[in-house]
Amino acid sequence: LLRNILPRLCMITRLKMEELIHDVHRPLDIDKIKKGWHTIPQEYDYWIPEEDIEGSVPADLNGTLLRNGPGLHEVYGKKLIHVIDGDGMIVALTFSQGRVHLRCKFVASRHRLEEQKQRKFLYRGQMGTHPSGALKDTMTFLSSAVNLQWPKHIYRNPSNTNVFYWGGKVLSCYETGLPYCLDPHTLNTLGPENLGGQLKLKTLAAHFRLDMKNNRLVCISVKPGSGKIQPSLEIYEFDSSWKLIRHQMHHIKGLNYAHDFLLLEDYYVFHMTPFVDTSLRSVLAIYLGWSSPGQQMRYYSHLPSRFIVIPRHKGAKFQNIMELDTDPFHIFHFSTSEQINDTISFSAVCLGPKFNMDFDSEIWLSNASVAPGQVWSFKLDLANQKCTTNGAIDRASVEFPTTHPYRHGKVGSRYSYLMASDRRNCNLPYRDVVKVHNKFVVFCVSKSMYTTLACIHNVSSRVLYM
């Protein structure tokens, strides 16, 4: 491969270096970047004019791409501390015979409708946006304590983290509450969805996995524990008609959070993060209004960092739940994985001990400028119950690994793509795309998403190509 592409790359390097240097080092307008998180003033529904499309859309590209994300940065004059507290806006891009239709609508959640009715911010956010303040919360807590009760905090469910289609339903998710069901054609909100009462924890995590060999959707629900209350993890496998084929409920001490997971032929893999503390001290800080769950997400050195391996079915060789210690980091998103005999190999984006959920310069969801995500590789030796890692396999600051959804956990899965900042000493903003081979060779697909890269560095582990 290198013999074939190196001459071409060297030629491109000579011809394009001035253009490349200008692109990599050009100044950034941070205020323009911030606009990506600004409030979207209205909903849209229109065919994109041909003059707004560069090039042409392939005529045989047909279907709809669904996306979800926060569409608000303020609610009736109340600026949100963090955009994750903002209501979800669903975007549907429909491709049909060379044309593209855009439709976007807010999820009409219960709290959104109530706030529209009263025209003010009413419900607190998981990331710290508060309708009244710490003083009122403290007084409410003291009043409840007299009656030996915990005060009831009602958090907003912005339903802004993921959206997907399965079995005739479009579901919009936010992991601390029930999903909302949307009309697949109009995106109108039909209401909260409990899947016929099957979501016992009344939550549905943002991420899912597909087992296309058996035509199944695999989802999870998580609720943290505190004190004598154990954390709960619920795993579901649905067929294409939403019939529950397989179900597990576990109470694993310390597993208080799971945003994503790995699905393999015989096992599920989760990460027990040391960044979520549910001790009395942390819980009191939240109830007194001094902090919020999102603001409490930081490294706690006394908590374990472990991979939890759960047998998927009775045919799995190892039937006991394994807890394998690893380095201290937080994982939001897993990448490719495969199971060969008694070994599970995978990669994930890992965030180090300095990570927290500060809205970094109002351009990114966590403090990536200080604690960037990096791709790490892992091997789990199930026979010896041991985890080994090569650590970070590339220098780029990355997030949101994407791989073919039909190939999660399949032997031979090769590639994942990640948004990145592939510039030394510059972790934000994300302007690049990095392609990672499952044997941990890294390719940089593009710079600035639209300008191709034309140089080589560290060829032993990385190839940059057009």
User: Mean pLDDT across all residues, rounded?
Assistant: 88
Q: Major sheet: size, sense and barrel closure?
A: 5 strands, mixed
Computed over alpha carbons, the radius of gyration is 23 Å
**Residue windows where pLDDT falls under 50 for at least 5 positions:** 1-18, 449-466
Helix run count: 5
Question: Could you characterize the architecture of this molecule?
Answer:
There is one protein chain. This protein is mostly beta strands. It has a five-stranded mixed sheet, with no helix packed on it. Strands 1-6-5-2 form a four-stranded antiparallel sheet, with no helix packed on it. The chain contains five helices and 27 strands. The relative contact order is 0.10. Mean pLDDT is 88; it is low at 1-18 and 449-466. The radius of gyration is 23 Å and the shape is globular. The two termini are 14 Å apart. β3 (74-75) and β4 form a beta hairpin. The chain has helices spanning 2-25, 30-34, 110-118, 134-146, 280-287, and strands at 44-47, 63-70, 74-75, 78-79, 88-96, 99-106, 162-166, 169-173, 180-182, 189-192, 209-211, 216-223, 232-238, 244-250, 262-263, 267-272, 306-311, 322-325, 330-340, 343-351, 374-381, 386-392, 397-402, 415-421, 432-437, 442-446, 462-464.
